[in-house]
Design goal:
The protein is α/β, with parallel strands linked by helices. Helix 3 packs parallel to helix 8 and helix 6 runs parallel beside helix 7. The chain has a single domain, classed as Rossmann fold (3-Layer(aba) Sandwich), CATH 3.40.50.850. Strands 1, 2, 3, 4, 5, 6 and 7 form a seven-stranded parallel sheet that branches.
Length: 210
């Protein structure tokens, strides 16, 4: 963080964990995780996928609410005005790249939604689910950091959740926008942390509530 931002108090107050966590898993669909597709296989996304898998293994064992999503449309007419031709051509319900990667998806456990915009919270019912579950802290995982992760983090903040983004559980196509966007939301809206710290917090939460 630059001295100018620090002098103006950006990032001076931490968010912290609250009383109950929930996890959102944003767009780990095959379109992003399988290298055979135009948007698939970015190294930072695959790193985030593996770390999120590790996080979810623990979270589900501890009965932490999980909301998981893909982005898909019935046809281009339904889509917003995406400027990415690969999205317009492949983010379709009947396309083989549309399903969520099974490495991070448990349909019998996760609230699973299909979102139509960048944020997992936009018109999906995820916030209603977290309200019922008494979640006050949202851990954001998925891709891409500069797009749907940023949008999800800002919506989470706007819904008044404590919002935690583990850097190694989110990914992007390039490292620079990944770092830039984490730095930016980290000095305004969220705590940017890592998988190890989140696992430690989940362990502490489980012990408090056992």
């Amino acid at each position: 963080m630059s001295d100018d931002y620090q002098r103006r108090s950006y990032g001076s107050v931490g968010v912290g964990f609250g009383q109950k966590p929930g996890i959102v898993v944003v767009d780990f669909m095959l379109a992003f995780t399988d290298p055979q597709y135009p948007l698939g296989g970015a190294p930072l996304v695959l790193r985030a996928l593996e770390n999120t898998r590790r996080l979810l293994d623990v979270a589900r064992r501890y009965d932490v609410p999980v909301a998981n999503c893909n982005t898909a449309y019935m046809n281009q007419r339904e889509m917003p005005y995406w400027k990415i031709s690969a999205v317009r051509e492949t983010f379709l319900h009947d396309h083989p790249s549309a399903p969520i990667d099974p490495r991070v998806h448990d349909p019998s456990y996760d609230l699973t939604v299909c979102k139509k915009g960048p944020s997992i919270f936009f018109n999906t019912g995820v916030a209603d689910y977290f309200t019922k579950e008494r979640v006050d802290t949202v851990i954001v995982t998925g891709c891409n950091t500069s797009g749907c992760i940023r949008a999800t983090a800002i919506d989470s903040f706007s819904y008044r959740y404590r919002t935690i983004v583990p850097e190694d559980c989110v990914g992007d196509i390039e490292e620079q926008p990944h770092r830039d966007n984490l730095r930016d939301i980290g000095r305004r809206y969220v705590d940017v942390t890592d998988l190890a710290s989140v696992l430690s917090q989940l362990e502490a939460w489980r012990h408090r509530n056992s």
